């Protein structure tokens, strides 16, 4: 329960990928990890712990074994920080039928009908202009409005009698959060110092008009005022932002037996949290004294939309990290391919638990259940990167620590999702196993998993970091065969 309670704290601090990375940074720094930067030279020392971020939405943390030398392997768990959501459009200002609405884009493959009738707010990052001593600078700042300010109301059944026969969402016309009524917003518009000219309001040219900011016509002034108040700046200092709609209902441990986690963004912040906590605990005190490799966690942005970005798993960020670490200890470029062949990646992304109301969606021999531990994902068409060797290694770790483990294969008559596993395995050439904790309601605004599986995931990941070196030694023949 303690691990699950810690997960709840992580989830409630992480409404967006930016916030998740910020929370990860806080936890890493508290555990003695030192932040380094990709734009600078790295001065690394064996036995020490480091992390870096990219775009404030991807983070890579690693601990060098005390006996590490260039060419030794990397033991990595990879997950992702993003989840399906509604992101504000560059021009979000929409006014219809006397209401202020907020234009949004769908991000990822969400269950969009679950976003209706929820108490929503906004969160993300802003670029803010700062003025001090006559000079200007620009800051990156996270923002989160705690109070519900928006809602996407459903249409009454009296006006759409067939709704219960199939609720089909038009994501362009139906999925606009309502911010306020036009008349209330007009009555509460801010005014200039002389109480005569509304800020940003049109006039006859006799008096100068001030705009909320250069993009004042792009977003409702009411929204900008709320954001500025939260960020501690003036609306005119907001230069740009990346914001998304968020549910205001907090994550909780729930169920009649307190056996479930009810939350948004379990896919994939649950995996991110469990891998991060496992790394921190597996690199505490003197745990690196006999380690010859590098223990690493990489949490990527943009998995839900294909990972093809500068901070996604499809970017060079992982290979760059492996190369720079290796090259810090030796300039011999031949050592990098050797290190990769001595490395192992766990691609951690949530799995589909057997649903009691839809048992036919799973085949009989592959039905992951709650409380059953991590699920090893298999797919002959390489939608998952698991093979016999990587599955064997991960299963051996579970057996050694008496941790439950399960298997999953999608039905042949259903399409299969994918993960960062095949992307990194094919891009870097690293041995990979795809795993995930079982959950329901994947890609809903409100998901659920089991408390026991949070604990199992954490324990399994921690054991992975602690035991992989020994397993590799015992399995030298298997790995040496190529």
Short summary:
This is Aspartyl aminopeptidase. Helix content is 27%, strand content 25%. The chain has helices at residues 2-12, 17-30, 182-187, 221-231, 266-282, 317-329, 335-341, 388-400, 420-428, 451-474, 476-480, and strands spanning 34-35, 49-54, 58-64, 74-80, 85-96, 99-107, 120-132, 135-144, 178-181, 238-247, 252-254, 260-263, 294-300, 344-348, 351-352, 374-377, 405-408, 431-436, 438-440, 447-450.
How would you portray this structure in words?
Keywords: Aminopeptidase, Hydrolase, Protease. It comes from Nicotiana tabacum (Common tobacco). This is Aspartyl aminopeptidase. There is one protein chain. With 482 residues, the chain is α/β, with parallel strands linked by helices. The protein is 27% helix and 25% strand. The protein is built from 11 helices and 20 strands. The protein has helices at residues 2-12, 17-30, 182-187, 221-231, 266-282, 317-329, 335-341, 388-400, 420-428, 451-474, 476-480, and strands at residues 34-35, 49-54, 58-64, 74-80, 85-96, 99-107, 120-132, 135-144, 178-181, 238-247, 252-254, 260-263, 294-300, 344-348, 351-352, 374-377, 405-408, 431-436, 438-440, 447-450. The strands form 3 sheets. Strands 1-2-3-13-4-14-18-16-17 form a 9-stranded mixed β-sheet, with helices on both faces. The chain has a 6-stranded antiparallel β-sheet with strand order 8-7-10-5-6-9. Strands 11-12-20-19-15 form a 5-stranded mixed β-sheet. The two termini are 42 Å apart. Residues 192-215 have low confidence and may be disordered.
């Amino acid at each position: 329960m303690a691990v699950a309670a810690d997960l709840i704290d992580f989830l409630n601090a992480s409404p967006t990928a930016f916030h998740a990375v910020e929370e990860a940074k806080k936890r890493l720094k508290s555990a003695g990890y030192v932040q380094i930067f990709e734009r600078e030279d790295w001065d690394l020392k064996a036995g020490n712990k480091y992390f870096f971020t990219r775009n404030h939405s991807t983070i890579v943390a690693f601990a060098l074994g005390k006996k590490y030398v260039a060419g030794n392997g990397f033991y990595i768990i990879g997950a992702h920080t993003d989840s399906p959501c509604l992101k504000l459009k560059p021009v979000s200002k929409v006014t219809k039928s006397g209401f202020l609405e907020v234009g949004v884009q769908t991000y990822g493959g969400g269950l969009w009908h679950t976003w209706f009738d929820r108490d929503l707010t906004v969160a993300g990052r802003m670029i803010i202009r700062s003025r001090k001593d006559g000079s200007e600078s620009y800051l990156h700042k996270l923002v989160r409005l705690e109070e519900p300010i928006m809602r996407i109301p459903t249409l009454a059944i009296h006006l759409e009698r067939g709704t219960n026969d199939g609720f089909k969402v038009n994501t362009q016309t139906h999925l606009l959060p309502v911010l306020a009524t036009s008349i209330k917003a007009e009555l509460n518009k801010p005014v200039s110092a002389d109480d005569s000219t509304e800020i940003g309001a049109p006039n006859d040219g006799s008096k100068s008009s001030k705009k909320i900011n250069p993009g004042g016509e792009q977003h409702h002034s009411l929204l900008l005022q709320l954001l500025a108040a939260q960020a501690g700046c003036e609306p005119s200092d907001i230069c740009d932002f990346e914001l998304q709609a968020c549910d205001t209902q907090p994550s909780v441990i729930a169920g009649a037996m307190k056996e479930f986690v009810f939350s948004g963004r379990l896919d994939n912040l649950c995996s991110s949290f469990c891998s991060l906590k496992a790394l921190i605990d597996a690199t505490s005190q003197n745990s690196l004294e006999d380690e010859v490799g590098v223990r690493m966690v990489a949490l990527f942005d943009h998995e839900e939309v294909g990972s093809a970005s500068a901070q996604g798993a499809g970017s060079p960020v992982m290979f760059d990290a492996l190369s720079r670490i290796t090259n810090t200890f030796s300039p011999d470029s031949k050592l990098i391919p050797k290190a990769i062949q001595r490395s192992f990646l766990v691609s951690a992304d949530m799995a589909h638990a057997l649903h009691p109301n839809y048992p036919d969606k799973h085949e009989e021999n592959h039905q992951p259940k709650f409380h059953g531990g991590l699920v090893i994902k298999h797919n002959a068409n390489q939608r998952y990167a698991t093979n016999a060797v990587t599955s064997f290694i991960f299963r051996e770790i579970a057996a050694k620590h008496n941790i439950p483990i399960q298997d999953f294969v999608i039905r042949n008559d259903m399409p299969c999702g994918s993960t960062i596993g095949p992307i990194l395995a094919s891009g870097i050439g690293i041995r990979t196993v795809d795993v995930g904790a079982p959950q329901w309601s994947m890609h809903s605004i409100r998901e659920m998993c089991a408390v026991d599986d949070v604990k199992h995931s954490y324990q399994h990941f921690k054991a992975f970091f602690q035991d992989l070196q020994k397993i590799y030694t015992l399995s030298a023949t298997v790995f040496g065969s190529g």
